[in-house]
């Protein structure tokens, strides 16, 4: 059942807590109500700050423990059972034994290559996890900073909020329900420095809601912009900004 007062649904909408009929009615209302749009953007930023600020840091020794266990845990090499049966088979199995032994040696060599490949994959996964953890901590640090200031804007059909911490000299751009970029394109963030645009990184084209730690220092920037660029980004903007907002004081 659709609520009669659509203005009261801003918080539930930001939390994705509306039923399909309520969400459709509210989004239709949102298109023509600036007050609700502002509230949704502010609620969205608040939800992001609360969620990311509660990130739990893993123990520093976890990475070393994972890498150590990878080197200690082994699988049974292919052909090991066959080799044992041949060893017990006596003279009648000598001819077969030579072939089986050769097969086992080849299998062991293949297993060795597989083990190296598995180790490298595990190492890459650990490194990616550590990088993601550091990124989450940096984002949470900006959002939870005592001096964090925010400013909101509508962007690509969704709501965007810029959060800046002067003490950390970093900025986070959080978006919710942002339309995907055209095929082969990506959203790129920029700092405006004295009339020049400085790249601040790319947004993930596959995510409609995300919090991006902008690359580079905020100091000296008067505002930020969002443009649509070719995949991989551009050194300078190649399209008109789809969103512009000043850096909150």
From TrEMBL:
InterPro entries: Anti-sigma-K/W_factor (IPR051474), Anti_sigma_zinc_sf (IPR041916), RskA_C (IPR018764), RskA_N (IPR053877). It comes from the Bacteria. The keyword Transmembrane helix applies. Residues 102-242 form the Anti-sigma K factor RskA C-terminal domain. GO terms for biological process: regulation of translation. GO terms for molecular function: sigma factor antagonist activity. Residues 6-48 form the Anti-sigma-K factor RskA N-terminal domain. It is found in: Cell membrane; Membrane. Keywords: Cell membrane, Membrane, Transcription, Transcription regulation, Transmembrane, Transmembrane helix. It is a single-pass membrane protein. GO terms for cellular component: plasma membrane. The chain crosses the membrane at residues 95-117. This is Regulator of SigK. It comes from Streptomyces populi. The lineage of its organism: Bacteria, Bacillati, Actinomycetota, Actinomycetes, Kitasatosporales.
